[in-house]
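[recover] target loaded
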């Protein structure tokens, strides 16, 4: 679903897609925060959400996506710190968080 000029917020209902492996939403016009319901996406290996207008802090519940290898969050408006709980993401190979408002 990348590069489609999608607008609105991230759907909470995606949290029901427990067998989803790849979710690519980069380069759209999405706003808002990452829903806590996404903690159910335990099969995700790739989550790409760069180049949107997403904001807020990252939910610590993403720690349950232990198969995650690629996490791209660049060029949004995320703030706060990367949750310490993400130390469970031991399969993570690439992490892109530049061009946000992270601290620490």
């Amino acid at each position: 679903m990348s590069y489609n000029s999608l607008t609105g917020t991230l759907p909470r209902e995606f949290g029901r897609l427990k067998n989803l492996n790849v979710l690519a939403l980069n380069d759209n016009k999405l706003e808002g925060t990452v829903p806590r319901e996404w903690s159910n996406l335990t099969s995700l290996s790739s989550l790409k959400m760069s180049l949107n207008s997403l904001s807020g802090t990252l939910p610590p519940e993403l720690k349950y996506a232990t198969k995650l290898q690629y996490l791209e969050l660049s060029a949004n408006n995320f703030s706060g710190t990367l949750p310490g709980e993400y130390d469970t993401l031991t399969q993570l190979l690439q992490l892109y968080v530049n061009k946000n408002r992270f601290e620490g």
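[recover] notes: Residues 63 and 85 are 6 Å apart (CA to CA).
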